[in-house]
Structures are given as structure tokens and as C-alpha cells.
Amino acid sequence: MNQHDRVNLNRVHSLRRTRSSRSERRGTAAVEFALVAPILLLVVMATVEFGRGMLVKQVLTNASRVAAREASLPNSTSAEVTTSATNYALSSGVSGVTVTVDPSPTVATAGDSITVSVSVNFDDVSWLPSAWFLGGVNLQASSVMRKEGFE
Question: For the sheet containing 113-121, what is the strand order?
Fold first, then answer.
């Protein structure tokens, strides 16, 4: 056997080793993916859920502000304030909100502070079939404005 034949034999052996290590590596990659995929899926679902929670919280804050502005106007009623907050939330894709107004705009006098609170249970607005992380959490926002007028 000459030098040239030995070099070719070494190449053949190294190719066989490379092919067998590739197939072993494929099995390793599958096991690694099986271990990491559930964790990655959990992180993605948590991100979606917390993102939706922050979006809904911002909608509730804006709805309470719009409703408090309505409540501060002369001759406004609790029904108008509730409708204002509910319509704002619905137009932003959030349904099932609960609105409380304290005190009623009809009994408040000029300069009185009126508080409007808007809340919703996260289970009612979650994008996931069942909320995992924020399930059962009640999202709430309040705004306070003074009643307008000269009295």
C-alpha cells in the first residue's frame, strides 16, 4: 500500500465518521427541541396574555377619562356617563365593563369631584381560550374630574 492509498483510506474513514455523527446530532437536536419547545411556547403565551392585559388596562383608563369628562358637564346623568364609558370600551374591543359613578352627576354641584371607575374581569377579555396567568384578575381604572358650572 502506497502513500496515496493511505490518504484515500483515511478520507473514507473520516467521511463515515462524519455521516454517523450527523445522524446522532439529528437525534440530539430533536431531543433538545422537545425540551425547549414547551418553555418557549409558555413564554409566548405569557407575552400574549400580559400584552392583552396592558392593552385592556389602557382602554379602561381612557374609557374612565371619557366618562369622567361627560360626568363633569352640566346637566349630565349617570346613565349618560355609563353609556359613554361602555361605548368607548366597546369601540376598542372590550365588552362587559362595569361602570360606577360617585357621586351621581345629577346631585353633584359645581366644583365637586366626580369619580368614574371602569372595571372588567380579565377572563372576559382574554384572547386565549382560558387565561393562565391573569385568570380571575379584575382590571380597573378610575378618573376624577370636577363638576363644571357656576353655582
Answer: 98-102, 113-121, 138-146
**Total domain count, the chain:** 1
Identify whether 8 is part of a domain.
yes
The model carries a pTM of: 0.77
Alpha-helical (H) ranges within the chain are 3-72, 78-91
Euclidean distance between CA atoms 61 and 96, whole angstroms: 15
Q: Residue 65: CA atoms inside 13 Å, Cβ hemisphere, count?
A: 6
pLDDT in tens, 117-149: 999 999 999 888 887 788 889 999 999 999 998
Give the domain extent around 116. Answer: 3-146
Assigned domain for 151 exists: no
Residue 11 lies in a domain: yes
The x, y and z cell numbers of residue 65, run together, are 377619562
- Between the two ends of the chain, the Cα-to-Cα distance in Å is 115
User: Does 48 reside within a domain?
Assistant: yes
Helix (H, G, I), strand (E, B) or coil at 124: helix
Ramachandran sector of residue 96 (left: φ over 0; alpha: ψ -120 to 50; beta: rest): left
69 CB-contact burial (10 Å; exposed 0-12 / middle 13-18 / buried 19+): middle
